[in-house]
Amino acid sequence: MSTPLACYHCGLPVPQGSCYSAPVLGETRHFCCPGCQAVAEAIVASGLDSYYQQRSDTALNPEALPKALRDELALYDRADVQQPFVQHEGELSTASLLIEGITCAACGWLIERHLRNLPAIHEVRLNLSNHRLHLCWNAQQQPLSALLAELRRIGYAAHPYQPDQAAEQIAHENRRALRQLGVAGLLWMQVMMASMATWPEFNLDLSDGMDRILRWTAVLLTTPIVFYCCTDFFRGALRDLKTRHLSMDASVSLAIGGAYLAGIWSASSGQGELYVDTVGMFALFLLTGRYLERRARERTAAATAQLVNLLPASCLRLDAQDQAERILLNELQIGDRVRVLPGSLIPADGRIIDGRSSIDESLLTGEYLPLPRQVGDALMAGALNIESPLTLEVQALGDHTRLSAIIRLLERAQTDKPRLADLADRVAQWFLLVVLSAAALVGIIWWQIDSTRAVWIVLALLVATCPCALSLATPTALTAATGSLHKLGLLLTRGHVLESLNQIDTIIFDKTGTLTEGRLTLSAIHPLGTQDSAQCLALAAALESHSEHPIARAFGRTSHKAEAVETHPGCGLQGQVNGQPLRIGQPAFVAAGYAGVAPSIPGQQGQWLLLGDSQGPLAWLVLDDRLRDDAPALLEACRQRGWTPILLSGDSSPMVGSIAQRLQITQAEGGLTPDAKLARLQALQAQGHRVLMLGDGVNDAPILAAADVSIAMGSGTDLAKTSADAVLLSNRLSSLVQAFGVAQRTGRIIRENLLWACLYNGLVLPFAALGWVTPLWAALGMSLSSLLVVLNALRLTRLS
Amino acid sequence: MAALYVLIPVALAIVAGAIWLFFWAVDTGQYEDMDSPAHSILFDGEEEKRQLAAHQKSRVAATGKPTQHG
Fold it and tell me: For residue A407, is it within any domain?
């Protein structure tokens, strides 16, 4: 059988019978949907089709981007909306935007070239590492909404970028750290040149005056390193003294300070060995390690900023003449009448005053089947309107909606979060005590034997056992692991995740959207008449393609065309295909079409739709939520690690039980409110279990905040993503399985690094105590052990 | 060895200059984006090659023989 064709633009499979194609690079290419075809045609029309030659990855399907209607984009031209992120200088306006949909470097090239072709553009620059677009254009010639529409045409969505205080602070501190690093590196190399000349191993015949000059030069060049580059270490050491909690900073400060002061003494007295080059070396190695960590954290923060959708929330308000006007959400008042179209989110708590539809509350409560609502029913802010337009009267806003009650629960849960201790910190404390007591002991012993050498030997001891490798051990491993996890699609937003993952013994799953796909798909077709499943599906798809609601996509696309399609809210759709009248929807409605009796619904689970023509019923079509294909593999991986799986869901349908059975989860509960889920979690934690939570909806947010480690699905709500410790950007549960493997390897490599660092310091200690360590050996030993630690950590960047 | 009396101050001056240059680079954001400049050079190079090849092809098609040097 032939393998399914892949869409030329986004790589998703092309459904059978679809007719979307366009010529690209001289050949006719096939696409999976009209969105991809339109984007490809726009790219070719701009003359930028070499994008397809140069890209290293498929593009994002344009339908995966958040929908923005033309009038929503027009909101961006309003002065009050533009004020936070656009600056005006005469004719030119400058704006910073965050671009969504970038998959490889060629996307950056495509965006820059396409925008440069527009006449109003003055300057455009895209930063590929944080997906920020810097735009400078003539606002008189083209409004911002036109530029955003152009970006949409080539398949990218742009959001306003508003750097918050925290991001600015991080950027400022990182620049400072880079300056310190550069100074340390440049000066250290000069110091090394000057001080190497004084080492006894090289046996240079230096006159006494020259020797002094070189020593003083070395000390002079080291002074900026000590007072400009190492200030953070000294501040950390002071803090340690105040809190009586020893860390690496105390040990490093001792070695740096000691070596510097001894260097001054050695330069002024002309005797003893010069250890100031080790000051430069420590500074450079440690600052490099910390800088790489900072850069990684900055990248993570930039990626996290992209998670939250910054499109200004807007809604359609009806005025006294029943005209709809698009306004910002924060302009809404209680008592306003709002029109909610199919596919849009309900903007505020309210009561329906006109219309009939069904709504999807799965992101709020976990119930995945659409619930019918009619005039007089109450609606919750954040639910999704599915079937047909509704008019609602606003009754509660902002702080007083049910959504905010969940947010308050979340805030309380965040303060109670347990913290797990850091392995490296504990090793550091123990290590420091050993070194300080050894130094004191050795000092006392040598003072008795030969008091002139005592000081130098204690100094050599402190310098040689300085925990350079030890303080690089954990950060390098964590940084490498975070980077490779990001490539796998798991974004770690809080630092403790990797180490905590190795202490977990229980895992809680949410159902809707986490173990299942979270949207209704066609799960079965039961033909009742003469036509077979494929034909019935084609007829249903032809009818549904005219409907606006999100469920219609579950039927796929077909080449059949339907005419005279009418929507009967609450009942179904009616239309004609190939001259035959057809109805699909509620059994009673479809039965009226053939003037007969509606068959009773055979099954228990899912949403059952009947398809019928004027002669009789044709088929039952069952829409249901589908288990993710990689869910069983994830459960297997959890079991292999000895973790207890628990399923807690807000859904009260029988699907909870059937999924628990399929995945062999013995502890499963449905119909839980967020309060109840949180209570279950806290009961487990009180018993001493360490819990990992995997969820996506707003109702999961408090539990995600309170669990020891939590992961939110990338397709989940903003609230879930910001409450969790990590976000599964790829939505593939198989990435999680790989991530657990990486966490295990990281734990092992951190332990290996710590072991090696302690071993090295342990070996060097007796040599230093006996007075056999010279600056040359100290420098060599430190460099080699640090290099070994870093190379070991880099093993984590290999994904296999 | 007397040369060192000159060389050491020269080395100090050079280091000072290097540090000043480095500070200028960091403060003007030269190190902000390490990825895009590498890619954009490659892509623009590829684009020029492609346009050149397309240009050559159209000239061959128009004249019916390979381009000749004037």
Answer: no
Supply the pTM of this predicted model: 0.76
DSSP-H helix ranges across A370-496: 402-415, 423-449, 451-464, 468-488
Please tell me whether residues A190 and A286 are part of one structural domain: yes
Structure-token match 């069904």, residue found: A358
The helix/strand/coil state of A706 is helix
Between the CA atoms of A341, A344, A348 and A349, what dihedral angle is there, to the nearest 10 degrees?
80
Identify all chain B residues contacting A187, using CB atoms and an 8 Å cutoff. Answer: 15, 19
Q: Which domain holds residue A28?
A: 1-64
Q: Chain B contact for A179, CB < 8 A?
A: yes
The Cα–Cα gap between A296 and A291 comes to 9
Q: How far is Cα A459 from Cα A705, in angstroms, rounded to an integer?
A: 48
Mutate to test the interface with B, among A127, A168, A195 (most CBs of B within 10 A): A127
Nearest to B39 among A109, A210, A213 (CB): A109
Over its C-alpha atoms, chain A yields an Rg (Å, rounded) of: 33
B62 versus A753: the higher-pLDDT residue is A753
- ipTM exceeding 0.90, yes/no: no
Write the single-letter amino acid at A715. Answer: S
Domain boundary among A678, A705, A731: A731
Task: Report whether pLDDT(A509) > 90.
Answer: yes
Q: Six-digit token pair at A482?
A: 């975070």
Nearest to B36 among A108, A182, A187 (CB): A108
B8 touches chain A (CB under 8 A): yes
Contact A221 B15 (CB under 8 A): yes
Residues of chain B with Cβ-Cβ distance to A193 below 8 Å are: 11
Could you tell me the end-to-end alpha-carbon distance of chain B, in angstroms, rounded to an integer?
Answer: 63
Predicted pLDDT at A1: 42
Q: Supply the pLDDT for residue B70.
A: 40
8 Å CB contact of B32 and A53: no
Q: Rounded to an integer, what distance in angstroms lies between the CA atom of residue A507 and that of residue A51?
A: 44
A224/A256 same-domain check: yes
Residue A244 backbone class (left: φ over 0; alpha: ψ -120 to 50; beta: rest): left
Given A277, A360, A510, A696, the catalytic residue: A510
Number of domains in chain A: 4
**A240 has catalytic annotation:** no
Let me know whether A258 and A205 are in one domain. yes
- Picking from A585, A615, A645, the residue at the C-terminal end of a domain is A615
Cα–Cα distance for residue pair B67/A130, rounded to 1 Å: 46
- Of A106, A175, A193, Cβ closest to residue B26: A175
Both A512 and A636 in one domain: the answer is yes
DSSP A467: -
Q: In this structure, what token pair is assigned to residue A406?
A: 């969940």
